[in-house]
Structures are given as structure tokens and as C-alpha cells.
Amino acid sequence: MVGFFNTPAPPTHSTTVPAILEYIDAWHTRLHTLSTTAQDQPAPTADTRTVINGCYKPKPDLLLIGLTPSPHLIHFLQNLSKAFPDLGLRLKLINHLSLCYWDDDNVDSTVPEILLAQRVELTNQATRLAQEMIPMVNIPAGTTVENEGWDVVIYSIEGRSKASGLPYPLQEIKRWTLPSFV
Q1: Cβ–Cβ contacts within 10 Å for residue 157, how many?
Q2: 41: which residues sit within 8 A by CB, 6+ positions away?
């Protein structure tokens, strides 16, 4: 979804993973209550739903899916950050999903030509695969598509070394399926 946080060591009574999961559970329950209460049910509109804005490559070795996030998600993240200030939640823009992203140790360093060529080829392969597997990303520029549905997921990342060049070792902790109006 967005952002990263580290649980304090040692965790305080309010910044344990169970406390965070309980907070998200309560938010999720409120959203689903809205979706099941007929008279209060928000009408899904482009202003309330997360919208996919297409696939784009700002650089030859970077592949993104552009998003316009639901205000429900933005408010949730702001409230989560306020509710758990000890986490130091690093709020990030949630206006894209990175499909190809290269995490270089030093942003200012020059990537060797051979490595850059390999990255561009991998990014091109990923672009073709994304367009085959996710038809909604292969849409004309300026067109938007309403989401098929989103989940909020908490992952644990442990034991990652940037020097290894390996992907994030993600372990799913919990997943919440969002109602269609988000």
C-alpha cells in the first residue's frame, strides 16, 4: 500500500504489531460497515475510488503503474501515522506501483553500461508481461480505469542486505480486502 515503518525496539505498549493490526482491523470494519449500510453506502465515483492511470516508463529501466488513490486510503495513512507516532511511519506518495525499480546504494553513482542494458531488457520483458497479464495497464495515455479491487497488506521485511542485490524478502503478516468504493 504505502510507506515503511520499524517497530521500536523494545516496542512500547501501543506500538506492538498486534496493536497496529487491531487498529487496521477497526478501520477495515468501519469501511465494510459503510459498504453494507444501504442508505450510507458511498456511490463509487472517480473521486472516491482508487483509479489506475496506465503503465508508464519514466526511465528506460523503470516501470510504473500510475494510480490516483482513494481519499479513504490517504486519510487512513494520515490517521495511522498520528495514532502510532513512535513508528515513524514514512508516508509515501501512493500514486504508483513500481513493477521495475532498481535500488542502487548510491543514487548519484553511474550504473555501468552493461548493467544498464540488462536492466532495460528486463524492464522491457516486464512491460510485455504486465501488458499480457494485466490488460488494464495497456490503456491509452490520459485514460483512467476504475480498480478491480484492492487489498491492504502488512508485510515484514527482515534480513535484507542492499549489497546482496536480492529482492525484498517479504513475509505477509495480514491482508484486508477493501470494499469496492475504495
Answers
A1: 11
A2: 34, 35, 181
pTM of the model: 0.70
Q: The cell 510507506 sits on which residue?
A: 3
Q: Give the domain ranges of the chain.
A: 17-177
Backbone dihedral region for residue 133 (phi beyond 0: left; psi -120 to 50: alpha; all else: beta): alpha
What is the tens place of the pLDDT at every residue in 106-116?
Answer: 555 677 889 88
Please report, for residues 70, 103, 107, 117, 119, the alpha-carbon distance to residue 111 in angstroms, rounded to integers and kept in the order given: 36, 11, 9, 10, 10
> What 3-state class would DSSP assign to 145?
strand
**Cα 174 from Cα 48, distance rounded (Å):** 24
For residue 10, cis peptide bond before it (omega within 30 degrees of 0): yes
How many angstroms from the chain centroid is the CA of residue 120? 23
**Beta bridge pairs of residue 78:** none
> DSSP states of 61-111 as a string?
TEEEEEEE--HHHHHHHHHHHHH-GGG--B----SEEEEE----S-TTSPP
pLDDT 10s digits, 13-48: 666 788 889 999 999 999 888 777 645 555 555 567
Looking up cell 519514466 gives 58
